[in-house]
Amino acid sequence: MDRGDWTIQCGRRPDAFKIWLAWKHIGDEALRHRVEWAIELSQYAAKVITQSDKSGQFSGRFELHHDPEYANVCFWYIPPSLNHLKPSSGALSPDEASMLSQVIPYCKDRMQRLGLAMITFTGEYNFFRWTFANPRSVTRDDVVDVLRDIDLVGCDFVPSLNN
């Protein structure tokens, strides 16, 4: 269940008391390490995304919406059926924008139903917003695996013009 669709908090944990308790429990050094690792993972994800065209490991391609901010990576997945689209150029026709806006909800729904991952999406042409909120056990291999899962569930996407 994705509670982010029902709340303005959507992935944020605004309860300062919980953060303070965790900080007191794990200490300064462990908290610093967690924050630094979350930022490092987001930068690594951005690197894999920007190199996805050249890597040959994906059927579709990924494109950054903008550079990572803190531990957040915003990006599009472009399936082979829409490979001609360049959303970061901002020059999409209304039909192209409509087709692209169907991709991310499609991928998110399939990933969620298969129990692979849950990444929220938002905004212009529905881009993914991947937040590394609790990265303690997340590895670089996990980052690549999630991107492969997105590609796996999205590579057969065929857009509909009546949406």
UniProtKB/TrEMBL annotation:
GO terms for cellular component: cytoplasm. GO terms for molecular function: carboxy-lyase activity; pyridoxal phosphate binding. Its cofactor is pyridoxal 5'-phosphate. The keyword Iron does not apply. It comes from the Eukaryota. SUPFAM superfamilies: PLP-dependent transferases. Pfam families: Pyridoxal_deC (PF00282). InterPro entries: PyrdxlP-dep_de-COase, PyrdxlP-dep_Trfase. One of its GO terms (biological process) is carboxylic acid metabolic process. Keywords: Decarboxylase, Lyase, Pyridoxal phosphate. The keyword Lyase applies. Belongs to the group II decarboxylase family. This is Glutamate decarboxylase 2. It comes from Perkinsus olseni. The lineage of its organism: Eukaryota, Sar, Alveolata, Perkinsozoa, Perkinsea. The gene is GAD2_12.
